[in-house]
Amino acid sequence: MQKIEDKFLTKVRMRLEQEQAGKLRKAEGLTRCRGTTECVPEPPGGDEADMAVVSIEERLEHLELCRISSSVRSIEAALLAMELGRYGDCLRCNEPIPPRRLRAIPAAILCRQCQEAAEAGREERAWCRA
Ligand SMILES: [Zn+2]
């Protein structure tokens, strides 16, 4: 585990909380304009024919919501890691995440290698078929 300055942690926490609030507001706006909260990421599976009747606009909106919800999830994970005193360590391999990476991506919870492995597997994208 690496030692991270409290000052840096406080700053990152504030920035993440602000970012999270902003994204949630945006997601709320997207769902509100359709008057429904149905447009949350669907579980995998489902009927392909159903997707065909969905308009381009709805698909774009869905994609945007997926993007927002996945970034909110990673912000939540980073905040949780902070609570646990594990912020700054990769949640997968437990190696310290380089401070340069944390400064560039405060919500980073994985080191670069693990992030790349996760992206190659597209674990999260499986939920978003838009
Ligand atoms: Zn790692």
Quick overview of this protein structure:
By secondary structure, the chain is mainly alpha-helical. It has helices at 6-33, 48-52, 56-83, 99-104, 112-121.
Helix fraction bin: 55-70%
Number of E-type strands: 0
**CATH class placement:** Mainly Alpha
Please tell me how large the radius of gyration is.
Answer: 17 Å
CATH domain topology: Four Helix Bundle (Hemerythrin (Met), subunit A)
Low-confidence runs of at least 5 consecutive residues: none
Largest pleated sheet? none
Bound molecules: zinc ion
| End-to-end C-alpha gap | 39 Å
In CATH, the homologous superfamily goes by the name DksA, coiled-coil domain
Strand percentage lies at: under 5%
Give the structural class.
Answer: mainly alpha
Under the CATH scheme, the architecture is Up-down Bundle
Order of helices and strands: HHHHH
Overall 3D shape? flat
Mean pLDDT: 82
